[in-house]
Amino acid sequence: MLDWVPLLVGIMLASLKDRRALLTENLLLRQQLAVALRTRRRPCVRWHDRLFWVVARRLITDWRRHLVLVEPETVLRWHRQGWRLFWWWRSRRPTGRPRLTQEVRDLIRRLSEEHRLWGTERIRGELFKLGLAVGSGSIRRYRWRPAPRPPSQTWSTFLRNHAHAIWAADLLTVQTLTFKTLYVLFFITHGRRELVHLAVTAHPTAAWVWQQLIEATPWGRQPTYLLRDRDLVYGGDFTPRAKAIGVQTLLTPFRAPKANAIAERVVRTLRNECLDHVLILNEQHLRAVLAEYVAYYNTERPHRSLALEPPLPTARSPVTRGDVRSRAVLGGLHHVYHCAA
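RE: above sequence
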């Protein structure tokens, strides 16, 4: 049914009562509220709404005063515009302290250049003896400043220049078929993401961890810095013993795995690409699986941080002809492709 019929009747009845103005205003506002509460993103004015306002225009002289159908965003926009207009009117005249003259600014710069050890209050005192009352903020603004230092290198450049001398170490656990827990310790370089050493044991001790560091650094190949967490398995004397052979140990903060992000990412890679898809039988089986995967990881697997090259790239001559052949890794879990000559 049309909803404008009772509204039109209400206008006629309201005109016969004493409180005609109040009822008329209430009726007009209710009609606008009915339009605004319609289930639409933007209220739509229908033909009977237009007819209502045509009749209201004929019967009510001040009908425009009650027409306030706007969106809430419009009211907020009006308020922001009024706020900007208000502060534009307030800021037409400059307020605050008057600007210092050029002579006073030059005098401040001269005093600071001739006495570079003077602070702001000392210069302010000298100006006060000359009969010039200048604030500390003005002196700091116009005083002499030394030439800017040459730009420093960025952290990314600094870390890139030292990446070849940084190794990272971490441990991860692996469960076997018989519900036995094995521990895997690995060392990885920051420069080329190379897994330089990986060892497996069922009973990790401080002596075993130290032995793995010795085996990972043969013939003088050792890092300058070794980044590791605060696991107690390293032992209390690991840091001084490593320093004695020229390796500085960097400990990550408490509960901050992102501080050793490269090692943590390798743990995830080992699980996602190898350990989560293989059922480990025993310690010997885990060593064999990890040895095969590490060889694939270092020589064949592309890395995004190395421009899609493996950590140990091999020289390969481009072959434009021949069949593309594949070699299975870990029983077909991964494949290595090459062109047959």
